[in-house]
Amino acid sequence: MISLDAMGTFTLIVGLLTLTPGLDTALILRTAALGQHRRAWGVVLGIQSGTLVWGTLASLGVTALLTTSHLAYQTLRWAGAAYLVWMGGMMLWATWRRSSNESPRTAGAKAGTEARTGAGDTLLGGWRQGTATNLLNPKMGAFYVAVLPNFIPAGTSHLGAGVLLAGVHILLAVAWACALIAFARVLRDRLRRPSARRCLDRITGTVIAAFGIRLALGQ
């Protein structure tokens, strides 16, 4: 049985990790701020699905391969870096393409249509994006390998304790995501203008691509 002191310490660690601005925060804020609430919640569910997978694998000792096998870690690192650079690059390319191909009037009409119809606003699409972003981040696996075993007492089911601890992390992350989505609603009206939407996508795309480059450089 995990002691209350150990649970409190783990909660503090993952709470600070959750509150630290990063890729997850940028992705959730961008998606919700554009009014794509179903997709935003899909992203949240996908990220937390990935967290549960990492927690389960770490409790079973599978993710220890990331620290013992240089090839496994490097393969996942490069795959994650390529995915993030591609995702960020696609966001940037889409804004430049819209900026050059559309007049202000047609851009505004298109943005209004997307807002009304919820184009691209799907729970499944967000879930796929969130899951891929989380599972292709080897630093998540390395974090769980380094931290989780320290909070699983001897003689306790590793799987049960690992899932319980991952569940604590997920609850904190979902609570933080609720705050982010609520904050994004305040920004939604200001982002109805095509120029504001392009600016948001360029900032988010740059942040995501930068995370990918940092991951590729091993930082």
TrEMBL record:
It is a multi-pass membrane protein. It is found in: Cell membrane. The keyword Cell membrane applies. InterPro entries: LeuE-type. The chain crosses the membrane at residues 6-29, 41-66, 78-96, 141-160, 166-187. Keywords: Cell membrane, Membrane, Transmembrane, Transmembrane helix. The keyword Transmembrane applies. Its main location: membrane. This is LysE family translocator. It comes from Streptomyces coeruleorubidus.
